[in-house]
Amino acid sequence: MAAKTLPNVLSQIVEARAEYDTRLLAQQLGTNYRSLMYWLRGDRPIPAELLPKICVLLKNFEALDVLESQAGRVAFKIPDPQETSEKEFLVISNLMKDVGSALESIANTLADGVVEENELNATIPKLEAVIQECASVKYLLETLYKRWSPRSTLDPSRDRNSNNLSLSQRR
């Protein structure tokens, strides 16, 4: 499987968005067209501070995903913190069941000890989706805790399973 590079991914995104004027993109980024083209061809590095703006303007975050992947991380969109109803809790519960099922599927792929390229191409997106959904649920739970807790913020000095202070606070 060929490694994705940031310039390649950005070029593909820009090409796919044929209706988006590249000169307009350069103007919105506060740069000139020539610099943008150097970045897209990989002739010069893209300034890191411009990458999030590029992704927002193009409505595609695959370029950030490439960087996260290179760093051994998985990025996800933070869910909109809205009022959570019983129906949403049921959705979350079902999501967790689906996550377990997806992990079981991935385990079956790995069971023979050999992963072929087609298995890899099918499994990695599933695994990334599971990680993203779990992170989204984690964020939702933390948001709900903050909203419903008498304390307005999470206190990292507290042990997760009790109201006792952590070992570092006891010293």
Describe the structure.
The structure is a single chain. With 171 residues, the chain is mainly α. The chain has two domains: 6-70, 434 Repressor (Amino-terminal Domain), CATH 1.10.260; 86-148. 62% of the residues lie in helices and 0% in strands. It is built from eight helices and no strands. The chain has helices spanning 6-16, 22-29, 33-41, 51-58, 62-70, 86-110, 117-148, 167-170. α1 packs antiparallel against α5. The protein is flat and about 50 Å long.
* CATH architectural group of the largest domain: Orthogonal Bundle
The arrangement of helices and strands along the chain is: HHHHHHHH
Overall shape: it is flat
Overall pLDDT, averaged?
A: 76
Radius of gyration: 21 Å
Whole-number tally of structural domains: 2
Strand residues, percent: under 5%
**The top level CATH class name of the largest domain:** Mainly Alpha
Largest sheet: none
Derived from helix and strand composition plus strand pairing, the structural class reads mainly alpha
Q: Counting H and I runs of at least 4 residues, what is the number of helices?
A: 8
Helix content: 55-70%
User: What's the quaternary structure here?
Assistant: single chain
Q: How many β-strand runs?
A: 0
Low-confidence stretches: 157-171
In the CATH hierarchy, the third-tier topology of the largest domain is known as 434 Repressor (Amino-terminal Domain)
End-to-end C-alpha gap: 51 Å
